Amino acid sequence: MSHPRTSDPLGQALLAYQHGDRHAFVTVHSSVTEDDQLPASYLYRTLWEMPELERTALEECRGRILDAGAGAGAHALELQSRGFEVKAIDVSPGAVEVMQARGVRAVARHDIFDAPATDEHFDTILMLMNGLGLVGTVEGLEKFLMHARALLAPGGQILATSSDISYLYEDEEGALVFNLNGPYYGEVEYTMTYKDEMGPGFAWLFADPTILQDYAEAAGYEVEFLEEDDQQQYLARLTLRA
């Protein structure tokens, strides 16, 4: 019996790039902004093509690292070259295939909520490119922060980037306009398309610093905000309290 192939637009674009199509891209559809194009080449960037927030995060990595939502493995490969032991995970079959082809040593296909196959512990969980969004929703953030406690070694850290997207809801006077009784404004719905292949919808969380701090402290983490850029994106370190 043949199974239908799981739709994997981002993975297909990465594979196309890996096989020589330098113009491969996915179209990103979101519930809050216009459609946008994400070139596959962006996920292949080298250290000096990375924004400063990401370079800072790589400097702050320590010990054994879990690179979550690793894409084409740009961060994992850079960390491997510095001598770190890195495990890269992504839900995209195409991304996993690309990372293996590019030389990422430990790759697995699962999401951040799946328990690892063995009793693995990490000193750093890395979540870059607005990577905190992988949790999906505020409820997912709460669930992930508890789940990560079991993944982290004593004193372990989560290094994550996220953004406050409240500016998308400002009117002409700069006042914020959103429904306070509705879902949190940073919960966004996305789909991706590669050529004529549309992937499944998925939720993505953009957490403002206050909500991240509140939930992380409640879950037993110390919170530090290490850096912010001019696009309201920030890098946070959550350290497991002893």
TrEMBL record:
The keyword S-adenosyl-L-methionine applies. Keywords: Methyltransferase, S-adenosyl-L-methionine, Transferase. InterPro entries: Methyltransf_25 (IPR041698), SAM-dependent_MTases_sf (IPR029063). It comes from the Bacteria. Residues 65-156 form the Methyltransferase domain. The keyword Cytoplasm does not apply. PANTHER family: METHYLTRANSFERASE, UBIQUINONE BIOSYNTHESIS O-METHYLTRANSFERASE, MITOCHONDRIAL. This is Methyltransferase domain-containing protein. It comes from Hymenobacter cavernae.
